[in-house]
């Protein structure tokens, strides 16, 4: 469980990563909010290993009809069940291939933007995507990470699904949600899942450490936004 949500073994799971994972339990947001409050009683904004264990136990309790409170931790219940995950420890329904975090209405809007940028052979190069990303006014290091995460096959171009991932990440970032360091499995387009492992640790992220913002401003072709520059990939 912990490896799936914390593949780099930092010892803590951030709120956004934990929320993505816990939502796969199928429990309501109200119950998940109670679980989070009990697992993070000090309001640290992340879960350590003990807190994550508490969250998993409470998910199992809720799924088996028990109240969500600390006394329920002593109950004997089956392991928690989560959907849309590749871990053999968890129950995976047949519908996992079709579930995608990009909503249908979002995808329709993103597809329209994609087509307006005149893709060639169904692909957009970095210099065509760059103005759209820059228009968001997000910091360049964030935009570089968005590009790295969305160019899933690392060919220097974005197809329609990869572009939708980029736009989804940009919109989330504009809503003050942090851009993840690794692409969550639920965000990998179904069309890409057969071509690559779907567990988080297998998604390549380049570069490992983006350069300072100042160097990005002075040399926009440098570092993590290289593929976005017209002289890049």
From TrEMBL:
Bias (Polar residues) ranges: 217-233
Which Pfam families does the UniProt entry name for this protein?
EH (PF12763)
> Which residue numbers delimit the EF-hand domain?
138-173
Which species expresses this protein natively?
Tricholaema leucomelas
Occurrences of domain EH (ranges) = 1-83, 106-194
Q: Where is this region: Disordered?
A: 202-233
Q: Biological process (GO) annotations?
A: endocytosis; endosomal transport
Task: Report the main location listed first in the record.
Answer: membrane
User: PROSITE patterns, per this entry?
Assistant: EF_HAND_1 (PS00018), EF_HAND_2 (PS50222), EH (PS50031)
Protein's recorded name = EP15R factor
Query: Could you tell me which CDD domains the record lists for this protein?
Result: EH
């Amino acid at each position: 469980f912990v490896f799936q949500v914390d593949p780099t073994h930092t010892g803590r799971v951030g709120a956004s990563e934990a929320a993505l994972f816990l939502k796969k339990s199928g429990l309501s947001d109200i119950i998940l909010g109670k679980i989070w409050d009990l697992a993070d009683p000090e309001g640290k904004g992340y879960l350590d290993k003990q807190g994550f264990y508490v969250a998993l136990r409470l998910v199992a309790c809720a799924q088996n009809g028990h109240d969500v409170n600390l006394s329920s931790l002593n109950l004997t219940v089956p392991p928690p069940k989560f959907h849309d995950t590749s871990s053999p420890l968890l129950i995976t329904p047949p519908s996992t291939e079709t579930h995608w975090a990009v909503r249908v209405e979002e995808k329709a809007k993103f597809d329209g933007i994609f087509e307006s940028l005149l893709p060639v052979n169904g692909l957009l190069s970095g210099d065509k995507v760059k103005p759209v990303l820059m228009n968001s006014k997000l910091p360049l290091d964030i935009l570089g990470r968005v590009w790295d995460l969305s160019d899933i096959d690392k060919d220097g171009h974005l197809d329609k699904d990869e572009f939708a991932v980029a736009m989804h990440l940009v919109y989330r970032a504009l809503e003050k949600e942090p851009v993840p360091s690794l692409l969550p499995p639920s965000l990998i387009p179904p069309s890409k899942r057969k071509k690559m492992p779907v567990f988080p640790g297998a998604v390549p992220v380049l570069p490992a450490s983006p350069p300072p913002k100042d160097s990005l401003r002075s040399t926009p072709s440098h570092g993590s936004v290289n593929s976005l520059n017209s002289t890049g990939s």
